[in-house]
Write a structure and sequence with these properties.
By secondary structure, this protein is of the alpha/beta class. It is 41% helix and 14% strand. It folds into two domains: 108 residues, no CATH class; 288 residues, Rossmann fold.
Length: 438
């Protein structure tokens, strides 16, 4: 049972809403969602800040405790608050983490979640007025030490996301079971031409570009760091490469091995349960798709040192990485966020500059090419989000509750908004070694 904090109100131009049922909040599974804080002063400050943000960003806030004034103009992002007291106390105590936990708990909704989050993700550093940014120290948290992706902790971090169940991911991924940005054909204006039917080919296009970047072909000794469910390994083996793929997910290990065997490629592709730091052998090429985000900033030097150590002379490294602006990466590098708390514990998104500098400082590898395609990730996420919504009735049968559904609904929309605003981007990068000649 949740405890309800007193309502804190502030003037606002809103319309009333109907109540929404509170999801069943299991304190053992969702302790910080089930707990409603009681911080009256901070809640009052949060109410004022929310009102100011809504006015500056053109948001329409609907609350059941405010009399009707005017409906939302067409196209206006709407924040529909069902339990103002709970929501404002969460916001006052936890900031953006409390904002996400309020959605998980059902304190608020939006008829267009992506539109609302996109507006909030546009220049997020300007959301809070400069004169009040000192208030962040009251709710900014540090990531827990237990989430630091050391060798001892990394497998547990991966387990918390990727081992939820293969059946869960199969609900919203396309038949290639590829959980990273696709690359779609583009319209004459450059916009991705994305549809569910086009997604498998778009995932293969992404994989093929990465393999081409690494010059993977017949006889190539290829190391993949981060197996996923095996699609890249199979694609490379079909080219005639000899593939070793590393994963820390037992669920992915099992399904990837079965998919590779069904494709008749198990003589050319091997999947190992192995931390990247323990990689063995020498390879002509190394590829890694959206795995560096799980490495953690303190271990980026170890990651690139591993790439350098296993790469044969003349070899090539092809990475796909989500990225963010360097200044924003630095500003949040020691901050706990909602997505780290509930989705990717221990992770950290790098900037392209950080990748360049880390590789140059700790290895002989140099970034020699970068290709960005962030709008394609926004469309990939849209397709996943829509598919997840369509299949959500099956979550209960897999053992997932309503809070989990709302958590993942928020996660997919949150990420899509980040790419739509350009706050997040995704790159394929080529790294080659500066060979020392006598």
């Amino acid at each position: 049972m949740t405890t309800t904090a007193p309502t804190t109100t502030a003037p606002t131009t809103t319309v009333p809403t109907t109540a929404t049922p509170t999801p069943v909040l299991d304190p053992a599974r969702w302790p910080d969602v089930a707990r409603v804080p009681h911080v009256p002063l901070r809640a009052a400050v949060a109410a004022r800040l929310l009102q100011r943000i809504a006015a500056r960003r053109g948001l329409h806030v609907e609350r059941p405790d405010v009399r009707r004034r005017r409906p939302a103009p067409p196209g206006t992002p709407v924040l529909r608050v069902h339990r103002p007291g709970d929501f404002l106390h969460r916001l006052g105590e936890g900031g953006l983490i409390g904002f996400g936990e309020g959605y998980q708990a059902g304190d608020w909704d939006s008829p267009d979640l992506v539109a609302l989050l996109t507006e909030l993700a546009t220049a997020p550093q300007t959301l809070v007025p400069r004169g009040t940014q000192w208030l962040r120290r009251f709710h900014v948290q540090r990531p827990p030490a237990a989430d630091l992706p050391t060798i001892a902790n990394a497998r547990r971090n991966i387990h918390r996301h990727y081992d939820l169940s293969n059946e869960l991911f199969a609900l919203f991924l396309d038949p290639t079971m590829t959980y990273s940005s696709a690359i779609f054909p583009t319209a004459p204006g450059g916009a991705p031409e994305a549809s569910w039917d086009a997604l498998p080919a778009a995932q293969h296009r992404k994989i093929d570009r990465l393999l081409d970047l690494a010059r993977v072909g017949p006889g190539t000794r290829l190391l993949e760091i981060g197996t996923g469910w095996g699609e890249l390994a199979m694609r490379a083996a079909t080219r005639g490469a000899r593939v070793v793929s590393l994963t820390l997910s037992e669920e992915q290990l099992d399904l990837a091995r079965r998919r590779i065997a069904r494709a008749g490629l198990d003589d050319r592709a091997e999947v190992r349960l192995c931390d990247y730091r323990a990689a063995e052998g020498v390879y002509d090429a190394v590829v890694s798709v959206e795995m560096i985000e799980a490495v953690g900033r303190p271990f980026w030097p170890d990651y690139f040192a591993t790439l350098d150590r296993v790469l044969a002379p003349g070899g090539r490294v092809a990475l796909q990485s989500i990225s963010m602006p360097h200044d924003r990466m630095l500003a949040g590098s020691r901050t706990q966020t909602w997505i780290l708390k509930y989705i990717f514990p221990g992770g950290r998104i790098p900037s392209v500059r950080a990748i360049r500098e880390t590789a140059a400082r700790h290895t002989r590898l140099r970034v020699t090419r970068t290709d960005a395609f962030g709008p394609h990730y926004a469309e990939t996420l849209r397709l996943w989000r829509e598919r997840f919504a369509e299949q959500s009735a099956q979550l209960g049968g897999l053992g997932f509750d309503e809070v989990f559904r709302r958590t993942w609904e928020f996660y997919l929309a949150y990420c899509e908004a980040g790419f739509r605003t350009g706050y997040l981007d995704v790159h394929q990068l080529l790294l080659t070694r500066e060979e020392v000649t006598a």
